[in-house]
Amino acid sequence: MGILLVATIGLIIATALAVWPGTRRSPSSVEGLLVLRRVNGEITREEYVREVELLAARDEQLHPLTVPGDDHPGACG
């Protein structure tokens, strides 16, 4: 019974802290900033999708995805 009471109080405190004004942190990534701007209605869905596409293209150029065996054709087959 005591564990349930402590868990319930913890949940109430966590919920209160999550919605308390002024406790929201700013996003730590470009993706997070775009989501925040979209949720706040600062950009349209189309603008959001376009910006995410640009981020994905930039990420692909900076950090290309490699699959094992790509560097040695026929090594996996």
Q: Any overview of this molecule?
A:
With 77 residues, the chain is mainly alpha-helical. It has a domain at 26-64. 60% of the residues lie in helices and 0% in strands. It has three helices and no strands. The mean pLDDT is 83.
Main sheet specs: none
Bin the strand percentage: under 5%
Count of beta strands: 0
Taking the alpha carbons of the first and last residues, their distance comes to 59 Å
Class derived from helix and strand content: mainly alpha
Q: Mean pLDDT score, rounded? A: 83
What radius of gyration results from the CA coordinates?
22 Å
* Residue runs with pLDDT of under 50 for 5 or more positions: none
Bulk shape: flat
What string, H for helix and E for strand, traces the elements in order?
HHH
Q: Assign a percent range to the helix content.
A: 55-70%
Number of helix segments? 3
What characteristics describe this protein?
77 residues; mainly alpha
What would a concise description of this structure say?
The protein has 77 residues and is an all-alpha fold.
Write the layout of secondary structure elements.
Blueprint (H helix, E strand, L loop, with lengths): L1 H18 L10 H10 L5 H18 L15
Helix pairs in contact: 2-3
